[in-house]
């Protein structure tokens, strides 16, 4: 399947939604089908949280977190399929879904200055390629002008069960409350986004539903 962007050389498809809604899986498969790079913005917030915990910094101590942000080097790239991130030369990918990071990432990602630094890096991806980016504020803040926006939702019990089935300890309800209630760039349905209820879809039917939404939003997709 090929995608022909209409006017701009590179474009972004924004996939937002709460924890464990299935947005990463949909974003990854969409990117694969459309030949685009999938960017996992949550991994960036998780990687910064990993560094905060590594340095024994209190995630609620904004000043200490910001001082750390000023001295670390964050390299964002991709492997041709998905985004990659390294902090001071180390890729912490294997550790990003730990219980400790699940429990602290909402606090770190609520700090406005952390967000503005990571948003710059997120926007930077468009200089090199068209992307499918998933997160919480992609359609509302990172790429508000993109016409391609999907909000993936699913019932809370379904989402909690997905995390447990994946062997993860993650209080999705608590994290959603923090992510939706914060002052800066809260989780919300972005203006122009179409909601995809992923409570009862199979993976394949969810991707088909996402493709239908993108076609309705004007993305030219050749079968
Ligand atoms: O998508 P995820 O569960 O891996 O994201 C981890 C956390 O990162 C999430 O609880 C809130 C934060 N996040 C954010 O604030 N903004 C984004 N665009 C992506 C993630």
Give a structural overview.
This protein has helices at 23-34, 41-54, 62-71, 99-109, 112-124, 138-142, 156-165, 172-181, 203-216; strands spanning 2-4, 12-16, 37-40, 74-78, 83-87, 131-135, 149-153, 194-197, 220-222. The longest helix is centred in the N-terminal third of the chain and has 14 residues, at 41-54. The termini are close together. The strands form 3 sheets. It has a 5-stranded parallel sheet with strand order 3-6-2-7-8. It is an alpha/beta fold. Helix 1 (23-34) packs across helix 9 (203-216) and helix 2 packs across helix 4 (99-109). 2'-deoxycytidine-5'-monophosphate (DC) binds at residues 19, 41-42, 45-46, 105-106, 109, 135-138, 175, 179.
Q: Give the overall shape, derived from the CA principal axes.
A: globular
Largest sheet, described in full? 5 strands, parallel
Assembly type of the chains comes to single chain
Number of strands: 9
